[in-house]
């Protein structure tokens, strides 16, 4: 697999999706791992069947209550581990398939937006990892507005994820998205310049 894979990570409410959208506007390939998960969870798939067997109470006919499943798993470590053991291996397989397709199409690099990059082990597929972070209060307010959660629910979602201080030790680049969009755009321009140089240097070193 010759394509270079750059991962975007960050806690809920950090603004990963906004950054991803900007990158798409610039012409980069961006894979949204949340969308990959939703595609894998369609009725009748192996992922759907395994989840239904593990969490029957959130399923009804050909649908399941995604928010209730999330609420249960964020509140219970064992349920979260069970869900992850079902979903993560399937996501990894699908990502590898997509990387191979992009490489065959001649793509030089792609980004993946992966909220659970390290928990899923997908970090081993990546060449560089970029952390998008925001102040805690900013993230909480974004989650409340986006998902219709209470403040307590939003805080619980953040607390269930890897602390940002730990993420900072695992990544190659950090983008602070606590301020205005114009500040994010400046940071994106600098990041893309860095990545272009990085790709050229890697190519010259072969």
What does this structure look like?
- With 206 residues, the protein is α/β, with parallel strands linked by helices.
- The protein has a single domain, classed as P-loop containing nucleotide triphosphate hydrolases (Rossmann fold, 3-Layer(aba) Sandwich), CATH 3.40.50.
- Helices cover 58% and strands 14% of the residues.
- It contains 10 helices and 7 strands.
- It has helices at residues 16-25, 33-40, 46-54, 66-75, 77-104, 117-120, 136-147, 151-159, 164-168, 181-204; strands spanning 4-9, 30-32, 59-60, 63-64, 109-113, 128-133, 173-176.
- The longest helix is centred in the middle third of the chain and has 28 residues, at 77-104.
- The mean pLDDT is 91.
List the helices and strands and how they pair.
Elements: E1 4-9, H1 16-25, E2 30-32, H2 33-40, H3 46-54, E3 59-60, E4 63-64, H4 66-75, H5 77-104, E5 109-113, H6 117-120, E6 128-133, H7 136-147, H8 151-159, H9 164-168, E7 173-176, H10 181-204
Parallel strand pairs: 1-5, 1-6, 2-5, 6-7
Antiparallel strand pairs: 3-4
Helix pairs in contact: 2-5, 3-5, 4-5, 7-8
């Amino acid at each position: 697999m010759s394509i270079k894979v750059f991962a975007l990570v960050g806690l809920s409410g950090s603004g990963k999706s906004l950054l991803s959208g900007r990158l798409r506007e610039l012409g980069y390939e961006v894979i949204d791992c949340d969308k990959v998960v939703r595609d894998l969870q369609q009725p009748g798939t192996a992922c759907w069947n395994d989840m239904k067997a593990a969490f029957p109470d959130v399923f009804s006919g050909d649908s399941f209550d995604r928010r209730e499943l999330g609420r249960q798993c964020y509140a219970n470590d064992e349920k979260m581990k069970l869900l992850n053991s079902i979903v993560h291996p399937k996501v990894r397989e699908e990502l590898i398939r997509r990387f191979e397709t992009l490489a065959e199409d001649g793509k030089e690099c792609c980004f993946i937006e992966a909220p659970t990059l390290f928990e899923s082990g997908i970090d081993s597929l990546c060449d560089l990892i970029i952390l998008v972070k925001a102040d805690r209060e900013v993230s909480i307010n974004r989650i409340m507005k986006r998902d219709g959660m209470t403040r307590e629910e939003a805080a619980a979602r953040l607390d269930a994820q890897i602390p940002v201080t730990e993420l900072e030790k695992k990544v190659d680049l950090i983008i602070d998205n606590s301020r205005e969009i114009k500040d994010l755009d400046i940071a994106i321009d600098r990041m893309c310049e860095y990545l272009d140089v990085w790709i050229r240097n890697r190519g010259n070193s072969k």
